[in-house]
Design brief:
48% helix; 358 residues
């Protein structure tokens, strides 16, 4: 009877899933080493020494990258270098291999020189007779510093003094040479501390440069890209320079042709500048007063297609409307007019002096 998936034991299913994931990760991380997938043909070469060559460094033919170094192993009295070459690259049966310096800071690459009518057997190692190693600058400098530090400067100066005394009765030319050697030894002896310090600092600088190898290599590559971009745009830059020269010539000709007109114009412009500077305070005051004027003008003309303003006491009030109807104003000497207890009547505060206005 078939058991449903949900009712099965999850432990073996989980273990099987983890095992599958682990196998997949191993395959992905080593896919380049799997035959028929990684691509390329693997060869080996015997070198007298590694010469600073490292794993994953480039393999080149005529300066073109065709593969990489996959392993370095000590095999007897020589070093076995294993490297992979891309498919389609011919490696002859007399091919020579040489470790070359990529940068002066210690980066290398494996250079191949394909020779021979046949093809190199991947199972046969390229012998030491067909391989070569470069001269290493960094180890040479380090060895030089060690040798210089081991020199007894005082003993060397004493040896030169003894040699000079031995050749004391020699001809003048020989004595002059010996005196020069004596002065040289004395100079070296007097500068012994500075020389040791110089060699020590040179060693430190070499170490720093070796540690910054990748950054300096990247800097050189970026500079090479910039130079290539400039080279690619060489024609455009050249045309730009030609157009700039032509524009300069046109401007010079324009100035020369209109010098009579430009002179008075510049003089007038200078006079205008002086006038503006002389009236700078007035200009500042105008700018300060312009703000309230602009605000009031906007209020008057901003309500519609008319000016909205109020003018007070433009004309006097007519006599026939000075007093409100009903006799609230002052009475004259008309017949029958009564006095209010001998006092002038006063107008009511609620009376409107302009009854025709709302």
């Amino acid at each position: 009877m078939r058991v449903p998936f949900r009712e099965r034991n999850p432990v073996p299913i989980g273990l099987a899933g983890l095992a599958t994931i682990a196998i997949a990760l191993i395959v992905v991380l080593n896919i380049s080493s799997i035959p028929f997938i990684g691509g390329g043909t693997t060869y080996t070469a015997a070198f007298a020494e590694a010469a600073g060559l490292r794993k994953n460094e480039e393999v080149r033919i005529a300066g073109v990258k065709v593969g990489k170094v996959t392993a370095l192993d000590l095999e007897g009295d020589h070093v076995k270098v294993t490297f992979r070459v891309n498919d389609g690259v011919r490696v002859g049966d007399l091919t020579r291999a040489e470790i070359k310096i990529k940068t002066v800071l210690g980066s290398h690459y494996l250079s191949l020189d394909p020779r021979g009518p046949g093809r190199q057997d991947p199972h046969r190692q390229i012998p030491v007779s067909r391989t070569a190693t470069p001269f290493e600058i960094v180890p040479a400098v380090s060895q030089l510093s060690q040798r210089v530090e081991a020199i007894d400067v005082k003993q060397l100066a004493k040896s030169f003094d003894t040699l000079s005394a031995t050749f004391k009765d020699s001809p003048e030319e020989v004595r002059a040479s010996l005196r020069g050697l004596r002065r040289l030894s004395a100079t070296i002896a007097s500068r012994d501390d500075q020389l040791h310090q110089l060699v020590g600092r040179a060693k430190n600088v070499t170490q720093v440069l070796a540690d910054r190898n990748e950054q300096i290599t990247k800097l050189i590559d970026d500079a090479d890209k910039i130079l290539r971009a400039v080279q690619a745009r060489r024609a455009a830059i050249h045309q730009l320079l030609i157009n700039t020269v032509a524009l300069t010539q046109q401007l010079n000709g324009l100035i020369a042709d209109n010098e009579a007109q430009l002179g008075p114009a510049l003089a007038n412009l200078q006079r205008i500048n002086r006038i503006l500077l002389k009236n700078q305070d007035n200009l500042d005051r105008i700018l300060r007063l312009w703000a309230p004027f602009a605000s009031q003008f906007t209020d008057a003309a901003g309500t519609g297609r008319w000016f909205d303003s109020y003018i007070q006491n433009l004309v006097p009030i007519p006599n026939h409307i000075e007093t409100a109807p009903g006799g609230s104003g002052q009475q004259g000497d008309q017949p029958g007019q009564q006095q209010n207890n001998g006092r002038q009547p006063t107008s009511s505060p609620s009376a409107n002096p302009l009854p025709f206005l709302p």
